């Protein structure tokens, strides 16, 4: 079982899809990483050699913000918006939709259960 960035990758999945289990890596990024290392997208995780796993791990650690580091930076960005008191920060503070969605109806995910 390959362990990259603190995440166990599923062994029977295609490596291009398995890499998307890591927070911060999607299909596009996984394709870029695999193309950079000349690893076929459709190769199974269990068929990877230790050298290939090490190379993937090195690229992700050196070039990408993933998992805890990315989550921390996102929280820091939200906190900065709240501290400067901009419109988006106020919406975050109040627990309302931030990106212009309507609140007269819907928005229950953000606002919580009806009172």
Question: What's the structural blueprint in terms of helices and strands?
Answer:
Blueprint: E1 3-4, E2 7-8, H1 15-18, H2 27-37, H3 50-63, H4 67-84, H5 87-94, H6 108-111
Antiparallel strand pairs: 1-2
Helix pairs in contact: 4-5
Describe this structure in words.
- With 115 residues, the protein is mainly alpha-helical.
- It has 2 domains: 62 residues, Helicase, Ruva Protein, domain 3 (Orthogonal Bundle); 44 residues, Irregular (30s ribosomal protein s13, domain 2).
- It is built from 6 helices and 2 strands; from the N terminus they run E-E-H-H-H-H-H-H.
- A hairpin with a 2-residue loop joins strand 1 and strand 2.
- The longest helix has 18 residues.
- It starts with a strand and ends with a helix.
Give a quick rundown of the structure:
The chain is mostly helical and 115 residues long.
CATH first level of the largest domain: Mainly Alpha
Unreliable runs: none
Question: Taking Cα atoms only, what radius of gyration do you get, to the nearest Å?
Answer: 19 Å
N-to-C SSE string, H for helix and E for strand: EEHHHHHH
* Number of DSSP strand runs: 2
Distance, first to last CA: 47 Å
On the 0 to 100 scale, the average pLDDT is 93
Largest sheet: 2 strands, antiparallel
Strand content: under 5%
| Strand adjacency order, main sheet | 1-2
In the CATH hierarchy, what is the architecture of the largest domain at level 2? Orthogonal Bundle
- How many domain units? 2
Give the count of helical stretches: 6
- Reported by name, the CATH topology of the largest domain is Helicase, Ruva Protein, domain 3
Category by helix and strand content:
mainly alpha
Global morphology: elongated
The helix content, as a percent range, equals 40-55%
Multimeric status of the protein: single chain
């Amino acid at each position: 079982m390959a362990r990259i960035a603190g995440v166990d990758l599923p062994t029977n999945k295609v490596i291009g899809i398995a890499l998307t289990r890591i927070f911060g890596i999607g299909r596009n990024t996984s394709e870029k990483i695999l193309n950079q290392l000349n690893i076929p997208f459709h190769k199974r995780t269990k068929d990877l050699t230790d050298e290939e796993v090490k190379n993937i791990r090195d690229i992700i650690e050196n070039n990408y913000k993933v998992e805890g580091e990315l989550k921390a930076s996102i929280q820091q960005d939200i906190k900065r918006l709240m501290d400067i008191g901009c419109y988006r920060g106020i919406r975050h503070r109040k627990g309302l939709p931030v990106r212009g969605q309507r609140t007269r109806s819907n928005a229950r995910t953000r606002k919580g259960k009806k009172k």
